[in-house]
Amino acid sequence: MKKKLTTIFTVAGLLMLSNACTDLKEQVLDETLSAKLSEEETVNGLLAPTYALLPNLFQHTTYFALQEISTDEAILPYRGGTDWGDNGIYLALHAHNTTSTDPNVNNTWNQLVQSISRCITAIEGLKTATSPNTALYTAEARGMRAYYNMVMLDLFGIAFVKEEPGTTSKIIRGDEAVKYIESEFLAVEPVLRPKATVGPGRLNQAAVWSLLARLYLNAAVYRNIYAPTFDFKAEDMDKVIQYTDKVINSGQAKLSPDYFAIFGNDNHTNEELIFAVDQRADLNGHNRMAYFSISGDQFPLAEFPAANGTDGPGITSDFYQTWVQAYGAVDPSRDPRFYQQNMSIYTNAADTCVNDADYKINRGILRGQQYGALRVNGAFLRCPDGKLKVGKLTYVTRNRSDLPVSFSEMIDFTTAGSNYNTGYRVEKYEFSSKSNTGRNRGEADIVIVRLADVYLMRAEAKLRKSNDAAGALADVNLVRASRTKTLAPPALTSMTLDLLFRERGFEFYWEMLRRPDMIRFGKYEGKWTEKTNADVKKRIFPIPQTAIDGASNLPGYLQQNDGY
């Protein structure tokens, strides 16, 4: 039995061996149980595990939780005193009181160290391979090792250097870690293929240029994580500009006219994506980015009356107010990045019966009363003509039919602020049409880096290097003007670092960039809803106690980060 795998995928924990085929644009690998393996099948099988855990890393309770719930963008209270309590870990994460036993921290760490280990195994196995793709696959494995180490450095302040599977890794920090990751990316960059050849789901040339720009932009933070102010060196900013220029001038990516198409179920072919977690349906990906925030009484698919949300995190009032302040008397929905209405019932009260094929929930930041398919005793109600009956939603599944699914701006850790309907919600990624439970079978690729970030990184480097406000403004306005499916956001007339920080929030909310952005812009020690901790030691997370205990036979090898 053969199953097509796009990116390169493997059953978690198993080294599955693959054979390759090629379509018009990107290399596609197939998984096979063939007993006799060709050289090409063998090298494909060695590379496959280096990508395999990316969907796990980018789940809602791993990387997303650390990068978003720790910030002013996302807050997850103890819903109704019954849901998302989890021994207070999400309350602590948001308030910067996380401990070394937090399972989200532990799970994220485990995904990273396992992925680094798999890259090392692949590099070692490829040393004796004779396939024509050996050099390319070695470069991919080495580049992925650098990427995972970059994430490790960002989250935990350390990186691992290891070349031989049987040896002990060397732990490095600060400038040494930055230089190591930089050298690895630079070594593989000439070997990797353009995005058009391999697709956004594999490490490609434009992806490495983008990751190098991200590394240089954050290098001042990584070199001295607890510094009261960061030294953004001119030579680093020059390199940010150099590598963002490479991406932009290469033509390997284009800005999407439709903002929400970037996060749609068919986004694998969206030209704005540069590097992403490939989640097309045949990969059995997860739908957590779409289901995590919306209500448990929102059922987005006419075909699957069991697929719903989970009443997870909402955005803080603090973050919402940045939109309000930016648009003044105009509602923030004026910005096509804020909201996309997909059900006309919101503007046409008579439209209560909807064809199954036309039923899609709204996208973006969801406020106020929500409408959707009405579900009773596990089945959707139907109009006399057989269409789906749509109306005002209440919390029927919570046995609270008296409580409307009407999302409020207020959300906090009080009893009133922790109800099921508190907080405006985010439905940025499209709900997968294949997700029969709401949780798994995600189709939308999860963005790691896209072209808009490349432009905004370049804008930031221009500001930080020489206060080139005009150049930065041009980059920002170019991105804003590109969203032409509807009325594009109005052009800005000035640019400062504070305005750029705000703009990054508008463009990249819910994309796991907020924590490093807040640290780099000096905002992470600020105050927002339910967060007053200003300890700079909380900029990085604790090393899991289980990891420290596991290394106890090597005294002094793995030391806990300061402040934990």
TrEMBL record:
InterPro entries per the UniProt record, alphabetical: SusD_RagB_dom, TPR-like_helical_dom_sf
GO CC entries: cell outer membrane
Protein name in UniProt: RagB/SusD domain protein
Species classification: Bacteria, Pseudomonadati, Bacteroidota, Cytophagia, Cytophagales
Localization (cell): Cell outer membrane
Cleavable signal peptide: 1-20
Alphabetized Gene3D superfamilies for the sequence: 1.25.40.390
Keyword hit for Protein transport: no
Family stated for the protein in its record: Belongs to the SusD family.
Pfam families linked: SusD_RagB
Species this chain originates from: Dyadobacter fermentans (strain ATCC 700827 / DSM 18053 / CIP 107007 / KCTC 52180 / NS114)
Keyword Plastid part of the UniProt annotation: no
Domain of life: Bacteria
Keywords for this protein: Cell outer membrane, Membrane, Signal
SUPFAM superfamilies, per the entry: TPR-like (SSF48452)
Main localization of the protein described in the UniProt heading: membrane
RagB/SusD domain location: 288-535
